[in-house]
């Protein structure tokens, strides 16, 4: 039965949130806070949006004709300033749940459209060809025939990529491709549901030459094995704060150059003002050195990372720098509190699920300064609740929106240890 309802907020997935008469939440995709809408219930917790009777002043025309079909964007109908404000509120609420009263967002940044340089796309063989794109909500892969998010260089690669994957015997039905736009050019990690034949390798080599792709790596769908190089036309390299690194296939790369620069600037600004050459920064979850080499301009850096190939790539680039890279599974073998205590600052950029066991050692070590780069508000709450309990002060928060029109948000949070208790004179 059709009904009318008021939307009070946005849910975590970007859906409009209303309250039923009994207080239960009702999620309405496509609706915005403050709107009066007509809906058709879908189930007990969600409804279809039929029409907007009173639109929000923040409602805009979605810039992409695939919005609503493609699952890559959830809030293109919300203006970019309003989206940044909502994401800031999400981070603030995460820190409030950890116990920090009235967290102060000291800076905010939003990447521009057409700046996304990293994308993970699904590949599906169809009777009429190959679709390459993102999954629709509760549905199939939507072919990415347009995209206001990707850099033009990445989007321009897709037509030729469709043609070559269509010709591959290794692509029986399903596959995926992760593309990083490195300084040396596009770097592809292709996965297929069948093995690569010699003819497939020849086709990929020709594709790499024609599209000026230095490297295409490959592995079977679902495999966690180290990818093998299927085609290589030249060396790969990427500059991190002026240091040339050869990242492994599928390496982590910040989604946009602008966002990466904003994160680096926020982290550097949060360091202690007076750092001597002998002072050391401990960096956790260092990847290939996104922050490491920038930090090394301020002090010695002990960079820890669990991915073996990422550490090897960083080590090959550390000559002449003040970075020491070590391989360490920080969840199974965290850096202990005693070593943490000796650092002038702790910088961590944990994976989506957070810092896990490492966080307990950080709290026990009581470092004077902790700079936490978050990509998941829920993990941020879990990891920083202990900091609040230990007496840490939240000095500032920088909110960074690199994933335009999605619900993802990043933040750089700066924490200071409580002052040591004064000894009473005898």
TrEMBL record:
GO biological process: rRNA base methylation
Name assigned to this protein: 23S rRNA (Uracil1939-C5)-methyltransferase
InterPro entries: NA-bd_OB-fold, SAM-dependent_MTases_sf, TRAM_dom, U5_MeTrfase_fam
Residues annotated to bind S-adenosyl-L-methionine: 254, 285, 305, 349
Catalytic machinery residues: 375
Domain TRAM positions: 1-55
Pfam families: TRAM (PF01938), tRNA_U5-meth_tr (PF05958)
Recorded coiled-coil stretches: none
Keyword Transferase in record: yes
GO molecular function list: iron-sulfur cluster binding; rRNA (uridine-C5-)-methyltransferase activity
Family: Belongs to the class I-like SAM-binding methyltransferase superfamily. RNA M5U methyltransferase family.
Protein keywords: Iron, Iron-sulfur, Metal-binding, Methyltransferase, S-adenosyl-L-methionine, Transferase
Superkingdom field: Bacteria
Classification via Gene3D superfamilies: 2.40.50.1070, Nucleic acid-binding proteins, Vaccinia Virus protein VP39
């Amino acid at each position: 039965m059709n009904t009318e309802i008021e939307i009070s907020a946005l849910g975590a997935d970007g859906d409009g949130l209303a309250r039923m008469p009994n207080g239960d939440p009702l999620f309405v995709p496509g609706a915005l806070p403050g709107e009066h809408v007509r809906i058709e219930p879908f189930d007990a917790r969600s409804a279809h949006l039929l029409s907007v009777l009173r639109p929000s002043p923040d409602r805009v025309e979605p810039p992409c004709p695939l919005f609503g079909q493609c699952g890559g964007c959830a809030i293109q109908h919300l203006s970019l300033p309003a989206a940044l404000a909502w994401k800031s509120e999400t981070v603030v609420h995460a820190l409030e749940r950890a116990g920090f009263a009235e967290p102060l967002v000291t800076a905010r940044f939003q990447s521009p459209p057409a700046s996304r340089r990293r994308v993970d796309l699904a590949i599906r063989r169809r009777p009429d060809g190959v679709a390459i794109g993102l999954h629709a909500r509760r549905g199939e892969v939507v072919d990415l025939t347009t995209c206001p998010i990707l850099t033009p260089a990445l989007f321009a690669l897709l037509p030729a990529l469709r043609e070559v994957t269509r010709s591959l015997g290794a692509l029986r039905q399903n596959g995926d491709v992760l593309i990083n736009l490195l300084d040396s050019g596009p770097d592809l990690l292709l996965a297929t549901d069948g093995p690569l034949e010699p003819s497939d390798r020849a086709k990929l080599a020709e594709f790499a030459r024609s599209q000026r792709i230095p490297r295409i790596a490959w592995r079977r769908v679902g495999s966690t094995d180290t990818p093998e190089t299927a085609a290589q036309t030249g060396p790969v390299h990427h500059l991190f704060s002026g240091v040339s690194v050869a990242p492994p296939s599928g390496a982590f790369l910040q989604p946009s150059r602008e966002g990466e620069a904003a994160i680096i600037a926020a982290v550097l600004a949060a360091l202690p003002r007076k750092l001597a050459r002998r002072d050391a920064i401990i960096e956790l979850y260092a990847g290939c050195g996104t922050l490491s080499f920038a930090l090394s301009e301020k002090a010695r850096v002990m960079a820890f990372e669990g991915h073996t190939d990422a550490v090897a790539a960083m080590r090959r680039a550390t000559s002449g720098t003040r970075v020491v890279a070590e391989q360490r599974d920080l969840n199974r073998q965290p850096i202990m509190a005693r070593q943490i205590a000796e650092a002038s600052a702790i910088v961590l950029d944990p994976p989506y699920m957070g810092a896990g066991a490492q966080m307990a050692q950080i709290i026990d070590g009581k470092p004077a300064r902790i700079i936490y780069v978050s990509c998941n508000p829920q993990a941020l709450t879990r990891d920083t609740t202990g900091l609040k309990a230990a007496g840490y002060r939240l000095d500032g928060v920088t909110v960074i929106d690199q994933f335009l029109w999605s619900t993802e948000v990043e933040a750089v949070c700066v924490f200071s240890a409580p002052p040591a208790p004064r000894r009473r004179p005898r």
